[in-house]
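> run fold Selenocysteine-specific translation elongation factor
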Amino acid sequence: MIVGTAGHIDHGKTALLEALTGQAGDQRPEERARDMTIDLGYRYAALQPGAPLTGFIDVPGHERFIRNMLAGAQGIDLVLLVVAADDGVMPQTREHLAIVELLGIPQALVAISKCDRVEPARVSEVQAQVTELLARGPFAGAAQFPLSNVTGEGVDALRQALLQAQETLAQRAVSGGFRLAIDRAFSVAGAGIVVTGTALAGRVRQGDSLLLGHAGKPVRVRGLHAQNITASEACAGQRVALNISAERLAVEQIHRGDWLVAEWLFAPTQRVDMLWHLLPGETRTFEHFSPVHVHLGTQDVTARLALLEGERLAPGQQMFAQLLLNAPLQAVHGDRLVVRDHSAQRTLGGGTVLDPFAPARQRREPARLAQLQALADSDSLEAALPALIANSPAGLVPQRLERQFNRLRDSWQLAQDVIVIATRQGPLLFATGQWQALKAQLLETLGRFHELEPDQLGPDRDRLRRFAAMPVERPAFISLIEELLGSGQLASSGQWLHLPGHQARLTAADDALWQQVQPLLLQAGFDPPWVRDLARLTHTEEAAMRLLLRKMARLAQVHQVVRDLFYADATLGQMASMLVRMAGDEGVIQAAAFRDALGIGRKRSIQILEYFDRIGLTRRLGEQRRLRRDSALAQAGAHD
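> ok
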């Protein structure tokens, strides 16, 4: 269990921990000189003989050091709210309480300190103040313990309450990738660099590889301590010290606020969608796109906060919002954020991370807000997934969901109507009905294309995608086409796609002219006539000849290598077969050798090679070309 203090300055937080643990802590010279806690202090002690070690985090109470208090409050299991009997509830008591409530800390105990300085009536009065303070929040009814750090009265009762809380503490889940928010980094003679923090998720073992900071520098865990004891592994909910090593790693490069995470989980982001709650004690409405300070883990980042359901938010209300951060953040779904004003003088409110990979566009659209509502209402990936998919026409990327929820895909329990579609850029998730509807839409679109362009065999893939204007990205669109081709619902002739029963229809005049032109192209072989020459030979207008050949190109009967120069499909296939043979095992093609094989001039042979570059049969590398063996033309030529 990790216990953190909270409370106003000089209310006895540090002295109380000394009375509970018998340890004076690690006060710095400046703290001793000023008689106040400035930075975080750490203690580890067994509350009774034989009990497991409890970690204690002592936080500063002064308003100037709220940033340090926030760094210590993240990840604690129980907050020990300290209120001095002589002062009663003070401003920092209220702000610290608001912060720990926003962080979702599950348990709280209250220590009424300095009872030796006041009359019993005053103690009762302060207890009533505390009861009223807690009444409207999650810690209503929290046990209060009047005590004195000087006489020791009441300290043992508090210790017993802490022991009881430790026994009933719900263990944190250790599944998912390891996450550590670094609060200290220092160098130890003979060991090297050590970083400490509270493990927020997962587990880590000696020898593991992790990624450090915004840049994701790879580091190796040489050794570790868990709850101040040497261990071979540590897990979520423990105070952890890791001895790490990496090439050219210096302790000066590591700062409070840096993250250590599992390699697969590393995904820094600067746009986060959240459910934003403005504290009821605020005196003004919150304005859209206001500058703020955001605290997550031990990190403090400036940002703009964009409201997604309006232009203003009233005190005590909540709304979906998006953080536009000025530095990368390492967040996952369910993380608690604390938001302070742009001058870092007061706490405004906080919220829960819904999506750490928020979109830059259409963030206020109904479909996006429906996704955020599902994320807010659900406590697991499986519960949110149906609504996420239903409002994601382009499909969902599993890797992104793994990082969003910190859960690897092999632990998911997918519903039967969710399918995984393989694409060239990785898998996508769709609902079965959603994917079938996309296929039906594509076939309907192609049918409409045939009606509009009856003299064309069909569009190529990219033209069909533009014509269909479907919501999916190109990799998913290609998978859609490949499935339809595989099932026979779609056919292809070369690069042209069409419905199986569709045939391009030429007019009678076009067909008669083509019967004259086709033999001329085939007889000419590798040096066909230009458009003007074909027009002259057939006594046709040049414009009409050009239009016919472009129609035949769409029918895959000819190929336009350069403007007004068309090759018959059979001739082009013959040249492709020659290239495949010339490439040999090494796959290298020399332009001069190709020219000689065709028996035509260098300029024409280069034009043909450049056409092959464009359609993906070859790739130019300097003065050479390499065959792309995955090209359909190359595979066809290999069998000739």
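Residues 30-36 have pLDDT under 50 and may be disordered.
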